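Type II secretory pathway, pseudopilin PulG, Rubritalea squalenifaciens DSM 18772. Tokens?
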Amino acid sequence: MDKGKQSNGSVIATAIVLIAVAGLAGYFLYFSVIPNSTHRPYRTEAISYIRQVIMALNSYAVDHDGQMPTGDSVEQCFSQLIEQKYIDDERYFWNQRNAESLWNASKPPNNNGELTPGECSFGYVSGLNFNHSPADTPLIFDAAVSPGQFSTAVWDGRALVGRLNHAVVAMEITAQSPTEQTSATPQQGAIFEQRGEHNINIFIDLIPKEASILIPSSP
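Tokens:
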């Protein structure tokens, strides 16, 4: 066989492989990165709002011997921050992506000075003390469907968790079912974190017994 033709054939074969790889890369880019990019502004906003609420809780705690608001509901707890002027806008407690994914609703808070069901997207661990509770204790979170259980639908398999030390991280949800964790096939599950040789459930192992996990009320 002519070496030139053989060489050309090899080049063509290599080009075909590269085109196929590029096509597959484009496919995965479209179905993974692009959907996330549409959610990114909402997630960035949610992270910013969670940090603002943690700062308000910190200021509240400074004036109350380290203790943060307590109550029967997350709306009742957070309303104390509004009533006592630690935060001045109800929108800091709400996120459109959470509202649409969990409740199929998109109406923002009316900003009348009191949070009501549907006007708060974030859960809250009540009963913590800034002076005594460990700094890595979860404080605020989203995507919750019940205490310690989260929906993969909001942030494509993750939930935002803000801690006493002001860190806010998108943490992976370990779904109860082994199916693919996407917004198209939402699952529910807990959040685990590796600590040395142990994989701990952060909403069981890091929450003090005297604390309560409160989730937002649906509209």
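The chain has one domain: 39-178+185-214.
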